[in-house]
Amino acid sequence: MIQIQQLTGGYDGKPVVKDLSFSIEKGKITGIIGPNGSGKTTLMKMINGMLSPQSGEILIKGIPVSSYSAKDLARIIAVLPQHAESSFDFTVREVVALGRYPFYKGLLKQSSPKDEEMVQRSMEFTGVQHFAEKSIQSLSGGERQRVLLAKALAQEPEILLLDEPTNHLDLSYQMKLMDLLKDWVQGCQLTVVAILHDLNIASLYCDQVLLLDGGKEKAIGKPGDIMDSNLLEGVYDTKLSRQEHPQKPKPLIALVPAEREEQKKIEDIKLQASNESMVFRSPYFLKTMSSALIGGGFGWANTFVNRHVDRNYNCDDAHSEYEAYLRSLPVNPNETVGMMTAARLEDAGVVSIEKEGIKLLAAATSGTSNAVDAAQSWQRKAGSVAVGTINIWLFLEGQLTDEAFVQAMMTATEAKASALRDYEIKDPISGTMATGTSTDSLCIASTQQGKRMSYAGTITPMGKAIGHAVYQTVGKAIENYRKRMPRS
Ligand SMILES: Nc1ncnc2c1ncn2[C@@H]1O[C@H](COP(=O)(O)OP(=O)(O)OP(=O)(O)O)[C@@H](O)[C@H]1O
Predict the structure, then answer these.
(1) pLDDT in tens, 411-432
(2) Which residues is 220 bridged to in the sheet?
(3) Domain total in the chain
(4) Which tops the pLDDT comparison, 255 or 86?
(5) Residue range 279-300, pLDDT digits in tens
(6) Are the C-beta atoms of 215 and 39 separated by less than 8 Å?
(7) Strand intervals (E) in 328-398
C-alpha cells in the first residue's frame, strides 16, 4: 500500500528523517515508535504530503505522493494529528461532517444522503453521537479526540494516519479506540499508520512496528521482535524489562524505576511458629515462584504462611477461605504466599546454608501418608487420595532469571524425590518408591539482588545449595514425622 524508498527529509535543508526504506501492507496496523524528536511526526508529514522529501520517494498505491492532487490524496488518506485544537465553534456533527468534504459534489458542494449516513455511522462507532449537537469547544480532551477520529473515519479513507491517537484518552477509551481500529482494519482492509508512545499498545495492536532513533531506522518487524529489552533500553536510555502478557502471545514492556534499594539479607527473615501456622516474615519483598494456593506462579511477597489444617479440611472455595484466614492473622493476602498442610508443623525441618557465595534458608513440612510414585500414578483410580503433603520453602540471596527459577524448582523436586527414596517412602498403591505426595507445594523466594544467575541446575553453586538444603529439610521432616508415628 505504501512504499518508502531511501527517504530523507526535514526542515530548512537539514535532514531529520534519514534514509528510510520500508513497506506498509494494506489492511495492517503499522506502529511508529521512538523517543521524542526521533522524527516520527516528520515521517508522518511526508507520508501525507504536507512535507516534501529532500531525497527518496514515497509511493502510495504505486504512485508518488507528489503526483496526487490534494483532493485525491484526501480521498485516500485521513489524518488524526497530535495537537488538533479547534478555534472554531463547530458542533460535533459539523466537525465530523468536514470529513466528508472531499466527497461533496456540485458547484454548491452539497452533501448527499450517503454523506449524512457516513457521518452518523462514524459518530456511533466512536460513541460521540450523544453530544452530536454540542460545541466541540465544550468537550474534554478525550472526547475531542474521539470526535476527530469520527471525522477521519467519516472520510472512508484507505489509509489512516494517527499521531499519538491514545493521547488524552482514559484506559477504557484507549482500548476501545484501538479495538475499533483493529475492527476497521480487519473488516474494511483499512491501512493504519500510528505514532505510538505506549510500547504496550504498540505490542498489543500493531502488525508491524518501526523503531526510529535519531531519524534512522533502528529496527522494523513484528512486535515480538521489536519489544526486546536490550534494543529498547539502548534507544530510550531507560531500564526496561520484557514480560509476557498473561493472556495473549504479546510481549509487554515494564519500566524499572531506578530507586535505591536497601540490601536484602536472608537472616532478616523471621519465623513465627505455632501449632496453627509457620509464618516467615521478611522486611522486604522477595520475588517468588510457587505452586502455592495463595500467591502461586510468579509474584512478590513479604509473608510466607504454611498453615496447618485438619486432615478432614474440605472447602469448596479454599482460596477465599484461606484469604479470610490470612486477613484474620492479620496478613495481606496480596503480599503473601500461602500453603496448607495436614502435617504437624512442629515436625518441620529448617536448614540454613552458606557456601560458595550462596546464602539460603530452607524449610519443609512433610506428611507422607499420601506418597505417590509419579511414574506409577496412572494406575490409580480417581479419588484415591489420602491426606499428606510435603511443603518446601526456599529463601535465597541472588538474582535469578525466570529460567533459573524453573531450574531451581526442578533441582528442589529432584532432591525431594531423592530424600523420599533414601527414607524408603513407598507409594502404597504401586509399592514402588514414592517421588512425592499428590499435593506437594514448593516456593522459591529470592532477594533479586547481587549476582545474576541464569541457571540453577544441580551442579551450579545455587543448585548444589538447593539440592543439599531440600534433601536435609525433607529428611528431617520425615524423621520427625516418623518419631511421632513410628509405623509410617
Ligand atoms: N517545523 C519544524 N521546523 C524545524 N524543525 C522542526 C520542525 N518540526 C520538527 N522539527 C524538529 O525535527 C526533529 C524531529 O521532530 P518530530 O516532531 O518529527 O519528532 P517526533 O519523533 O515526532 O517527536 P515527539 O515524540 O516529541 O512528538 C526535532 O528536533 C524537531 O525540533
Answers:
(1) 999 999 999 999 999 998 899 9
(2) 210
(3) 2
(4) 255
(5) 999 999 999 999 999 999 999 9
(6) yes
(7) 336-341, 349-355, 358-366, 371-372, 390-396
Whether 260 is covered by a domain: the verdict is no
Q: Output the CA 37–ligand 1 centroid distance in Å.
A: 5
Cβ of 83 closer than 6 Å to ligand 1, yes or no, is no
* Residue 188 lies in domain: 2-255
Which 3 state secondary structure label does DSSP give 305? Answer: strand
Taking alpha carbons only, the member of 322, 327, 262, 261 closest to residue 292 is 322
| Averaged confidence pLDDT in the chain | 89
Interatomic CA distance for residues 254 and 240, integer angstroms: 6
> Domain with 452 in it: what CATH number?
3.60.70.12
Q: Does residue 310 sit in helix, strand or coil?
A: coil
Among candidates 303, 306, 301, 272, which has minimal Cα distance to 286? 301
Claim to verify: residue 218 and residue 273 sit in the same structural domain? no
Residue 289's beta-bridge partner residues? Answer: 298, 444
Residue 181, C-alpha cell as written in the block:
481500529
Q: Does the CB atom of residue 34 touch ligand 1 within 6 A? A: yes
Closest protein CA for atom 9 of ligand 1: 42
Question: SS3 breakdown of the chain: % helix, strand, coil, rounded to 5?
Answer: 35, 30, 35
Kindly report the protein residue whose alpha carbon is nearest to atom 30 of ligand 1.
37
Please report the ipTM that was assigned to this predicted complex. Answer: 0.97
Residue of the CA atom closest to atom 27 of ligand 1: 36
Give pTM, 2 decimals: 0.79
* The Cα angle at residue 409 between residues 459 and 448, in degrees rounded to 5: 85
In whole angstroms, what is the distance from residue 396 CA to residue 446 CA? 5
Residue 58 sits in a domain whose CATH number is: 3.40.50.300
Residue 39 Cα to ligand 1 midpoint, Å, equals: 6
Mark whether 196 and 249 lie in a shared domain.
Answer: yes
Ligand 1 site-directed mutation target among 11, 83, 235, most atoms within 8 Å of CB = 11
Instruction: Judge if the beta carbon of residue 41 lies within 6 A of ligand 1.
Output: yes
Q: Is 39 in the pocket of ligand 1 (CB under 6 A)?
A: yes
pLDDT score recorded for residue 346: 82
